[in-house]
Amino acid sequence: MTFLLSDELLAGMRDRAGEYDRDNAFFAEDLADLQAAGYLAAMVPAGLGGGGRTLRETAREQARLAAHAPATALAVNMHQVWVGVGRYLHERGDSSLDWLLREAAAGEVFGFGYSEPGNDLVLLGSRTEARPDGAGGFTFHGRKIFTSNSPAWTRLGVLGLEPGGKGSEGRLVHAFVTRDGGGFEILDDWDTIGMRASQSRTTVLDGAHAPAARVMRLLPPGPTLDPYVLGIFTSFEVLLSAVYAGIADRALELAVDAARKRTSMKTGRARAQDPDVRRRIAAMALTQDSTWLQIDGITQDLDASAADPALDRGAGWFRATAGLKVRVTEAAREVVDQAIRVSGGATYFNGAELGRLYRDVLAGIFHPSSDDSAHATVAQSLLGPLDD
Ligand SMILES: Cc1cc2nc3c(=O)[nH]c(=O)nc-3n(C[C@H](O)[C@H](O)[C@H](O)COP(=O)(O)OP(=O)(O)OC[C@H]3O[C@@H](n4cnc5c(N)ncnc54)[C@H](O)[C@@H]3O)c2cc1C
């Protein structure tokens, strides 16, 4: 597989990653480099002006980026997810997001404004009010948290709930607002222990407007098999998994390096000769082998299912991709933890790359699907829904 991002470009990003982390600074230079390399249009079909990369290829490349600059990869992931949704729909004959694919190819940067305080329904409900503008569009009023890439997105995908009428529930409104259109405030509240360069700040929506042409779906609250939601869910879970797999790949590399460089006073030999260290490193590699089999397998099936309905798992994609996300992010935490044990106390100093990966990898547990919700999805697929 050929990669869009050169080793040299990635090396520059790795150099900057520590500085961004220390200064709690946005990854502005990385973003400019990624734009110039055509990376933000990588998954846009060639016929719409992009690189025509598959989901599988993009997952591999996102992991490679994460292995150099985790927070940059995570924030850019939100853009890639939207391109992934556009591609998912386009390949299945639905052109409703072709405008997004064209705009991504033209340089627009897409953010993901879905998470809200205390909303564990995620895609299935919203605390944000979507007020009809009378012309088929909506204005959005509410609080979105953890909006990655806050300083730079130019288009923001949002979810809100239309007020219900008499005796009827409102509909969920999936739409896009623009930075130029205003009607929102970005708070300067990002000061976290990890993924600092992502600058995933709070966005207060106060009248941000989506015209009718940018209202993508009006859906009843609750579970749905609408392709738009399936596209978001599957693209999000697999590309997110790739970011954390990339962090673990890098942790393994650093552990191997440390095992070769550190010596034991007890034996006078490199730690790489210590059977315990060897076993730890082998276990990490075995975990990563399994991680990549899972990511490659699911992305391959997702890519192929557009043309081959026999591969389409329907509702089964929720179980498959939520499970993937939970297994991969948990495995990545374990791999980074083991890498730290192999590498020793030097990793405990601020500025150590592995120490930063340890903080970054923790973020994996907060993204949907949570461990609990993935288990609930699997239980439902085996046992049916809970009784009322
Ligand atoms: C690095 C990183 C980047 C992310 N990027 C994005 C992104 O780009 N787009 C996106 O949509 N999501 C993003 N997420 C969000 C993520 O997916 C979760 O939604 C987020 O981590 C919140 O998790 P939580 O619900 O466990 O948080 P919680 O800790 O439960 O809640 C988060 C906040 O909401 C408040 N809160 C909790 N319950 C209530 C309540 N009932 N009423 C009022 N306030 C309440 C809490 O006090 C807290 O301030 C990102 C997350 C991380 C870690």
UniProtKB/TrEMBL annotation:
**SUPFAM superfamilies reported in the protein's UniProt record:** Acyl-CoA dehydrogenase C-terminal domain-like (SSF47203), Acyl-CoA dehydrogenase NM domain-like (SSF56645)
Please name the source species: Promicromonospora thailandica
Would I find NADP among this entry's keywords? no
Tell me which InterPro entries the record gives.
Acyl-CoA_Oxase/DH_mid-dom_sf, AcylCo_DH-like_C, AcylCo_DH/oxidase_C, AcylCoA_DH/ox_N_sf, AcylCoA_DH/oxidase_NM_dom_sf
Is rRNA-binding there in the keyword field?
A: no
One term of GO molecular function: flavin adenine dinucleotide binding
| Location of the Acyl-CoA dehydrogenase/oxidase C-terminal domain | 239-363
Write out the entry's keywords from A to Z: FAD, Flavoprotein, Oxidoreductase
Required co-factor(s) are: FAD
The molecule here is called: Acyl-CoA dehydrogenase
Q: Give the family this protein belongs to, as stated in its UniProt record.
A: Belongs to the acyl-CoA dehydrogenase family.
